[in-house]
Design goal:
CATH superfamily: Rieske [2Fe-2S] iron-sulphur domain
Strand order of the largest sheet: 2-3-4-8
Order of helices and strands: EEEEEEEEEE
Bound molecules: FE2/S2 (inorganic) cluster
Number of domains: 1
Length: about 130
């Protein structure tokens, strides 16, 4: 019987040094806009589109483990993609991240398969890749 729980494929997204601390970088991977976000808690990847309307989340403010949509102010949990405030009520896909290398040469890789959770799913796990940030 085939293994249906294969590890996701990871694709190089950017250099860690290109992502501002406490900010985000828009990258295009597998035909999809992804926001790579660097926080004190780690590096996250979230689809770069608000679930309320087609607005780039990478243009929003990063606070803790959240990113805020600049248009109407919904905040999204970067670990799960779940909306934490209205008007958005649908989660945004998030992607597992891993960091390869050290120092200025550290590369951010993003999983090619997103994880989408229900806004009420409390069992979601962190997607962050951490190092000395
Ligand atoms: S477009 Fe993002 S909250 Fe409305």
């Amino acid at each position: 019987m085939p293994d249906t729980k294969e590890s996701p494929e990871f694709i190089e997204a950017c250099r860690l040094a290109d992502v501002p601390a406490g900010g985000s970088l828009k990258v295009d991977l597998f035909g999809t806009a992804i926001a790579v976000v660097r926080t004190a808690e780690g590096v996250f990847a979230i689809r770069d589109a608000c679930s309320h309307a087609d607005v780039l989340l990478s243009e929003g403010e990063v606070e803790g483990c959240t990113i805020e949509c600049w248009l109407h102010g919904s905040q999204f949990d970067l670990r799960t993609g779940a909306p934490l405030s209205l008007p958005a009520v649908v989660a945004v896909p998030v992607y597992a991240v891993r960091l390869i290398g050290e120092g200025d040469d550290t590369v951010v890789e993003v999983a090619s398969t997103p994880t989408v959770v229900s806004p009420t799913d409390s069992s979601a796990t962190s997607q962050a890749a951490t190092e000395e940030l």
